UniProtKB/TrEMBL annotation:
Pfam families: CorA. GO terms for molecular function: cobalt ion transmembrane transporter activity; magnesium ion transmembrane transporter activity; nickel cation transmembrane transporter activity. Keywords: Cell inner membrane, Cell membrane, Ion transport, Magnesium, Membrane, Transmembrane, Transmembrane helix, Transport. This is Magnesium transport protein CorA. The keyword Transcription regulation does not apply. It is found in: Cell inner membrane. It catalyses: Mg(2+)(in) = Mg(2+)(out). It is a multi-pass membrane protein. The keyword Transport applies. Belongs to the CorA metal ion transporter (MIT) (TC 1.A.35) family.
Amino acid sequence: MLLTRPTGTPAYEMGPHTRLNAIPWIDLLNPTEEEINLASEKLGFHIPSRAELNEIESSSRHYEREGILYLSGPLVRRYDTGPITRPVGFVVSPTHLVTIRYADYIAFDAIGLQLAEHSADAPPPSPAGLLTDLIDEIINRLADLLENVGHTLDTLSRQIFGSDERKHRAHASHTLRTTLKRLGNTGDLASMIRDSLLSIDRIRLHLSTANKQDLLPTHITNPAEDSSSKLLHNRLEIAGRDITSLNEFNTQINNKVQFLLDATLGFINIEQNDGMKILTVASSIGIMPTLIAGIYGMNFRIMPELNWSFGYPFAIALMLVSIAAPLYWFWRRGWLTRL
């Protein structure tokens, strides 16, 4: 889909006869090869394909060609089915910002709505200013994701350490396994957020250090702000500090994920040890009764108890005592309190 986002007007799809002179932002959402070629033909410069955006070399993700700045990187998107990362590309020319994306990120729609509500009397935002707005909004969305990850870990921590009583062993085992899976998914999301922050930070740095004066804005989206390029760089510096603080928080998240993983595995080991205790108790209390039954079942000719009228009750009582004695011993040692 080729979306044109003019100033003061809601976005609409680009057609073959759409004029792009007064449109600062062209947004390509899940574009086909034909749509990329159409946009490139109308704009007069190269638009990278998905294969190009997926390149991992820094020289392929951040470069300048004929006065056009090309920036790209992975960006996380969280769905109900789980988080994913998709490549996102930004092409900054003196007159247009072109975005290429393969997921419906909320940050893009938020800035698009802001651009649609832009006053017609104010000067239109520059491509670099629009990209700076996008960077700020993406950082805000990533911060929200990190906050959700933190709340999820707090909930999991209370589940893991909140109660020492596990009356139903099967339920406890299922709970620990479920917790382990949730921790793994949370760790994956935190890793994706870290990659996205790193990507956005590199985009910010390359935009900030762009040495082409035509790429610097003459005004920012907010008309009340100073329109100098110095303000743009100040905004990008503030964004860099925000990314640094989020990276520090993400490091704490990763440490907590690892701690909770270790704790969950420790509880699983304890549950397994308790299972071995059950087997130990069962095998121990069965040894002596089996031995007694084996002795009195040998049928030797001379066995005093064979002709004793109380021989059978005596053998039964002896077996019961041999069962009760180890049970009492295990109980005194605390082995039976959680079994």
